[in-house]
Amino acid sequence: MVKSQSPLISIAVPLYNESAGIVSFHNELTKVAITATGNSYEIIYCDDGSNDNTVELVQEIAEKNRHVRLVALSRNFGKESALSAAIHAATGQAVIMLDGDGQHPIALIPAFVKAWQAGAKVVIGLRTEKDSEAFTKRLVSKMFYALFNRFTDQHLIPGTTDYRLIDRAVQQAFLHLPETDRITRGLIDWLGFTRAYIPIPRLARAAGTPSYSWRKLALLATNSFVSLTVAPLYLFGILGLIITVIAFILGIAVFIEQIILHDPLRWAFTGTAMLGILTLFLVGIILISQGIISLYLSRTHSQTKQRPLYIINYDMSARIGDTSDD
Ligand code: UDP
Ligand code: MG
Fold it and tell me: How far away, in angstroms, is 102 Cα from ligand 2 center?
């Protein structure tokens, strides 16, 4: 069996309940992919356990178009895992990843390819305009970046998106990253390589509903922190130290004022009150730091189990590459 040559570009798209928009998304993607790559492309759709008919629609598409591959996961593993599955399956000389809901402008794919051909190993879509998100979400996101960049040795640039192109070299390195709780963006940032940025406009979803709720966003932010840095551990260590010092000074002051000088300032602290305040302080610190430690422990726990990132139900890409057969 003769394998056909690897395509110039693989396009990796995670899908979760995208049946409302997938067909028009695919049509536009195909058009742009053909012009951007001179027909040397593959599209890898990873169905992340959708419970609508996304899979059936993509199956139909894949049956008609040999450039299309479908990797269907056995249940919903979350976008990060689905995206990893698609990136892992990619065989192209570069991999472009984008959302299947139309929020990452397909028309910009040629710009990504150009930047790559000009030498960048990682090309990153960068949102430059002011976003229309709710004020609270913007504030929280600002705080996240400020905290993250202040307390870690990695620098995250606000506005960078998951809309990216990575060279085959980066993809190969990505394959070797074993972590389970992953933020694809953060991992690619960690990998390094020369980068280029493409400004992208902020688009609304073409159809369907976004599946990132506040809860998921909070999880994502926590995960980013815990997966990329142990800074919170240091932070609480330092906080604990400061509070202990303050408590120590306070204790000495109260001891001198009340017990040695017999309360000339009329503080009238009872011994139990003093003890109570100090104990509360210290117990609080211990509880917080234990909470933080348990975050890390739980990750160590899931990591040591070495579970696979995702389970593939079936992979319709097996027949790809057979097309050049006699
Ligand atoms: N997605 C996925 N699994 C999930 C949630 C989302 O594969 O559990 C896909 C989804 O189909 C879309 C992309 O990930 O292609 C981004 O999801 P969404 O639009 O819900 O998130 P947001 O635009 O808010 O980042
Ligand atoms: Mg979206």
Answer: 7
